Amino acid sequence: MAVTTSPRPRDGQPVEHVLELPPGVTLPPGVDELVARPSARRRRTASLTVQDGRLVMLVPAGLNLARETELARILLERLARRRAKQVQTRSDEALMARALQLRDSYLPQVPVPAQVRWSGDQITRWGSCTSADASIRISTQLCAMPQWVIDHVLMHEMVHLVHADHGTGFHELLAACPFTERARGFLEGWAMATSTPPDGGQDLLPGS
Ligand SMILES: [Zn+2]
Question: What is the Å distance from ligand 1's center to 52 Cα?
Fold first, then answer.
């Protein structure tokens, strides 16, 4: 349990440093390291924020490493509990409602989907669309991912209600949607880190 580097500049101000994860604690998806950033203005509280793919823990300056690590454990466990609760609330009804909301905001040209639901048996894809009956299925693997990633997959599949392939027309429609590149990067990173879904299977890569 060591800080990789904890340099103190000459003026004595603490600087941010990478923290090793406390035992038994994992990082949430989408971030690859935990960084402690001491602040002289912060007196008592610590908090977590995500910046550039890193989880940053803002802490009061002057804490020793053991205290920082303990704070990280408390905050990460709290975050994990909140995320577990969030996953439980991901129902088909909420997913359908979200799809309709996104369609209204960004894709009014596409037909209203007849059915949008979670599916546990889509091992090789993040989502699928059957335009014949206007139904969309989203992999339950996405349950644990941030809402903006789920939104991206929903919008991607709704565009398939109009364009079956990933041609120019498809990308023109999807261009109206936010977070597309960011979400794609997130999912590619996730697939690489977890080896899921199996290579070439995801319905999000151009030409797939
Ligand atoms: Zn697709």
Answer: 27
Domains in the chain: ranges and CATH: 17-88 (no CATH), 92-194 (3.30.2010.10)
Specify the 3-state DSSP secondary structure of 55: strand
What's the distance, CA 122 to chain centroid?
Answer: 19
Measure 166 CA to ligand 1 centroid, in angstroms: 6
Contact in structure between 57 and 74 (CB atoms under 8 Å): no
How confident is the model at residue 205, as a pLDDT?
36
Closest CA to 20 of 63, 72, 58, 62: 72
Q: What is the pLDDT of residue 24?
A: 84
Instruction: Please state the pTM of the whole predicted model.
Output: 0.59
Residues of the chain with pLDDT under 50: 1-10, 198-202, 204-208
Contacts of 152 (CB under 8 A, 6+ apart): 177, 179, 180, 183, 184, 187
Of 7, 5, 8, nearest to 19 by C-alpha is 5
Q: What is the pLDDT of residue 208?
A: 32
**Count of CB atoms situated within 10 Å of the CB of 96:** 17
Collect residues with CB below 5 Å from ion ligand 1: 203
Cα(100)–Cα(84) distance, rounded to whole angstroms? 25
User: What is the distance in A from the centroid of ligand 1 to the CA of 203?
Assistant: 4
